[in-house]
Write a structure and sequence with these properties.
Length: 120
């Protein structure tokens, strides 16, 4: 199997997502989006599903972006279970979880016999 997850793309996607949301978080036009139920976690899942039908070069890029969006908002699952507050998106707990998710991908890549995860 070819390498399908590029960690640079994952890292940059998370960074861009966080930076964008930090900049627009208190903007007047963004306030309705904060109460919207659509999460970029869902967008990540859709991007991953779309990537399954594409050629390898685009698949690798889209799959990595989708994984990044899921990792960035995976804390939402804990919110859904009632374990964290909705405002925890900017908390140290959430940022730490993103770091753990990123480190977990790196660790899994060390045991990746099929060369699924690309670190360079």
């Amino acid at each position: 199997m070819k390498q399908i997850i590029n960690l640079k793309i994952v890292f940059v996607t998370i960074l861009i997502t966080r930076l964008f949301l930090f900049i627009v978080w208190d903007s007047a036009w963004f306030i309705p989006q904060k109460t919207d139920f659509w999460k970029h976690l869902y967008t990540g899942l859709i991007i991953i599903l779309i990537s399954l039908f594409l050629k390898f070069k685009f698949k690798k890029i889209l799959f990595s972006v989708g994984i990044a969006l899921i990792i960035d908002e995976f804390i939402y699952i804990f919110h859904f279970l009632g374990l964290v507050d909705k405002s925890d998106y900017w908390s140290l707990k959430t940022i730490s979880f993103i770091g753990v998710g990123f480190v977990l991908i790196v660790i899994l890549s060390r045991f990746d016999k099929h060369n699924f995860i690309h670190l360079k």
